[in-house]
Design goal:
Shape: extended
Largest sheet: 2 strands, antiparallel
Number of strands: 2
Distance between the termini: 17 Å
Strand content: under 5%
Amino acid sequence: DYTDGVKGVGIVNGMEILQGFEVSKDAKQGLRTFRKWLDAFDPNDSMSLKKSKFKGTQREAIFHRNHHTARTRWIAPPNFPDDKIFNAYFNPVVDKSDERFSWGVPDTEKLVLFCNRHAGWTAEETRGQLDPVVERIEGKSIQTRIDSFMRYEDGIKFAKVRSKRLRTVLNSIQRRYNDGGGGAEGDGDRDEDEGGRR
């Protein structure tokens, strides 16, 4: 969410990329292989795929068959995959405090002073931004909990997934996990596009 990422790739295509390019053993190498695929020019893409001589694993070949035209729409930044992103993911900076977390009402006066000193805002500007927030906090609104986006199966929580393509990828990953790894999976359901429901 905080990186440039690959323009045109959302959650469904992203999961299909992770399925198509082996990232479970070496995420960085899998994404480098995807990058090479993305940047490669293949004149056979405009011809019949039956004549195409794609070289790669069976999973990569299935991905290529389903996404070969995406090369013209997906745009990766020059530094993709970025080592800084891998470092941030595998070595996240987290608060190691043992102090119990608690919600409270912001100290408006201290925030007014802070915003004046550091942002040059007037007291009126700051209060104009803060007052609605404080009113919501002091009101009796109930925040949506993450549980409301989950379904239960055999007492285990699962995310609700509406996209057929995403469900296909997740089911494939679950099967490989249950089988202890393994070969390529099927090509999935192509009925729903990236802009579909999630």
